[in-house]
Structure formats: structure tokens, C-alpha cells
Amino acid sequence: xxxxPKLKLAPTPGQTIGPFYGYALPFEKDNELVNQAxxxxxxxxxxxxxxKGEVIPDSxxxxxxxxxxxxxxxxxGSLVRDGYTFTGWGRTAVDNVGHYTFTTVNPGxxxxxxxxxxxxxxxxxxxxxxxxTRIYLPEDTAALAADPLLSSLTEEQRKTLIATRExxxxxxxxxxxxxxxxxxxxSYPRES
Amino acid sequence: MSTETxxxxxxxxxxxxxxxxxxxxxETISKEITSVHEAYRQEVIAGKKAETQPRINFAPYxxxxxxxPTKNLHHVDPETIELCSPAFGQRDVHALESDxxxxxxxxxxxxxxxxxxxxxxxxxxxxxxxxVEIWQANAAGRYIHKRDQHPAPIDPNxxxxxxxxxxxxxxxxxxxxxxAPYPWKNHHNAWRPAHIHFSLFGTDFxxxxxxxxxxxxxxxxxxxxxxxxITDQDAxxxxxxxxxxxxxxxxxxxxxxxxxxxxxxxxxxxxxxxGDH
Lengths: 192, 277
Ligand SMILES: [Fe+2]
Description:
Order of helices and strands of chain B: HEEEEEEEEEHEEEH
CATH superfamily of chain A: Aromatic compound dioxygenase
Low-confidence stretches of chain B: 1-17
Mean pLDDT of chain A: 97
Low-confidence stretches of chain A: none
Oligomer: heterodimer
Strand content of chain A: 15-25%
Largest interface: A-B, 85 and 94 residues
Bound molecules: fe (ii) ion
Strand content of chain B: 15-25%
CATH topology of chain A: Protocatechuate 3,4-Dioxygenase, subunit A
Helix content of chain A: under 10%
Number of strands of chain A: 10
Shape of chain B: globular
Number of domains of chain A: 1
Order of helices and strands of chain A: EEEEEEHHHEEEE
Structural class of chain A: mainly beta
CATH class of chain A: Mainly Beta
Mean pLDDT of chain B: 92
Helix content of chain B: 10-25%
Shape of chain A: globular
Radius of gyration of chain B: 20 Å
Structural class of chain B: alpha+beta
Number of strands of chain B: 12
């Protein structure tokens, strides 16, 4: 890949979400990308912890993903969920014990042979800027082995980005901001 | 959008137990800030590129100590989903949600202001039709949030939450009340400069950001470890709105301008490159 073009304007700095977003950002059914009654619905859940292994209840997560067929959706209606429209985007405030849940579908591969993943953004009090990472589905081992990002990681790091499939079909993905098994967080071209 | 205190909040009094709270003095915090900034200035003199974002590892902000990733961010080229963003529209946001002064039966107390500007990407292109969300304290420095135990009055006519969808030139405008500074638990006698929290989306999800807008000339700037986590003065200045008399309206509200620049979109140049093959 060649060099990304230089930015023309300097980007505005981020700041922490702070402790008081709870009455502002969450909305009804914010974490339900599909209705639980949908036969293809999947629970994506986990906990978020700090460098001491303590849970982080004051954090907010967002996911953004393709639909089951790997199509990237461009449809409004995320903030006023009608229970039928899949928009690909969801938000949730982590609960008092650091646990989060999204109701969604397994994303399909956006291109033939690519490993499907869900994009995750983490905001928290104490976190001065947002963090990005990917939640890979565990099933397609050939696609996972060929994935450029995963291939560039150590086995230990790689494990932090692949969700676990639970017996009931749920996806489990824990987020560790610091310490042992620290989640791999990402940066992209043209951030500065 | 909820206009009342969230019912299922159960964090009551948890601020008292915040393990990150310290009894450090402002002097201690300010010294730490100065030493990080001085080290940064030396690096810039030695030829390092100017920083544009806050440090995520910034010890004077005590709650960051156990919450910043210790490993470097892993650089990755974005794939399809990362080059797109969710769509929001009039279905999601009502036009009246950008006026925070009309959400209740009466007029809120405080200085009525209009904050207006544009959302641009790193190439200077307007980000049109995207969601902007704001939240803020009232004119007394109090949030409508159960965890906010600051003994300043709640204003029954002010919630402090707004939303808007940007126009074709990336423009947005909120009518609100000027928020006041408020105390917090980082160290002894810690006060946040007055600010409005902003949440923004771009054309690529990699441009997603949350930040805070400040008001010009705030005497608390130099003392605040969250604002000072941005080591570069030019970068810090980008979070400060400008008083703009052309936004001020006759006998109604004073006006501030604040333009927001997101990081660069990767879609166009990556597609162009694909086309080369
Ligand atoms: Fe705040």
C-alpha cells in the first residue's frame, strides 16, 4: 500500500467522555441491532476491566458491522428502533458490574474469503480518547489465518481479538484496557 | 432522549468511593503537567512532529492510571466496514432537539447562547447529514445525573442534552445555556473549566470521536489535567470556541463559533489506489 495523503487540516483533539454521559447518550433499544425474537439474533457480551482487573462500569461501547450477508448498510433509524430495520450500529452503557450486551447478528464477510469482524469503539471515564478494536468471529479458521491484522500479531495478542462462541450461540468478548491479556487496540492511517 | 433523571441509575454516592480520587494539591498536579509539557517541547525542538491528540497516558488525570492501554496502538489499514459510517437522518433526530432551552415548560436560568459551526474532515470537506450529540452542565455547574452530587441547584427547565444532523455544508447550530465550571474529585480543589461535551461521526467509522468544547479565556485552563492532557498549545486551542458577533442575535442570545475537524477519510485514496491495479 502506498503512502496515505497528508491531511490538509489538523484534526480537533478528543477528550474523555467523562462520568456524566448516562442521561445523554443511551437511548431506548440502543443495544438491540435486531430484536431478540429474530431467529438469527446473537448475543454479543463480555466485561470491560482495568489494569487491576477491576470492572469499569462507567464506560460506553459502540459497535458497527455488516449484516449477515456481508453487506454494509446505509440506513437511518438507529436512534428510533422500529424492530425491523437493521442499521448495523449499536451503543450500550456498560452496567454496574462492568458487563455489556448487544443483540445483533453474525456479520458476513464483506469480501469473499475475508474474516468477518465487528468494529468496536470504547469510551470511558479515565480514558482520554476513544479506542478502536475488532471483534472477529471464531469460526472461519482459514480466513482468520489469512487476515492481515491477525497475522501481524503474536498468538497472545491475536487471542484478544477473537470472540469465543458459547454453547447457546452467544459471542463472548472481554475488553482489557490494561495489564495481562491487554486487548490490542488499533490506529488507522490519516489520524494526524 | 430522556428528559428526566435516569431511573435505573444506581451509582448513588459512588463518587465518594472513587479509588482514583486523591488528596493531592493543585500544586502537585500542576507540577506534573508542567514537566510532561516541558519534555514534549524538548521533543518538538528535536524535530518531533506536533501532537494533535491528548496523551492517553497522562498521570495528572488520576482516573487514567489504570485505564490507558500500555501497548502501542497497532497500526492497521482499514477494511470495508471501517471505511463507512452508520447513517442518521430526520427519522432519528427532530429539528427541535438542537434547542436545549425549549425542552420544558419554562425558560432555563442562565446566559442564553448559540453555538454554531461546521463539521469537516481532515481534507476540509464538509461532513454532511451526520449526527452531532451534546450534553452539558447547567448555568450553576450541575448535571442532571444522579452521580453528580455537586451541591449546586438543578434547573427544572434545563436537561442539557441536544442532538442535530449536520447540513449540506457540515453546519450545525445549538441554542443552549452557558454551562458553569464544576468541582470534581481528581485532587483537592479540582475544578473543570466550563465545557460542552460533543459526540461526532464522520464518513468513516474510524473518524468517530467524543470531545469537549471550551469557552475563550477560561482561567481554569492551565489547572485542568483533562484539558492539559493535550500537550500541544495549538492543539489545545482547537477545543476553544470563538466569540462570534455574527452569530449573536439582537436582544436574544450571544454567539460562539466552533468548527470541528475529524481525522482523514481513507475511503477515497484507498479506492483510487485499487483502481490503479
Ligand atoms: Fe463534563
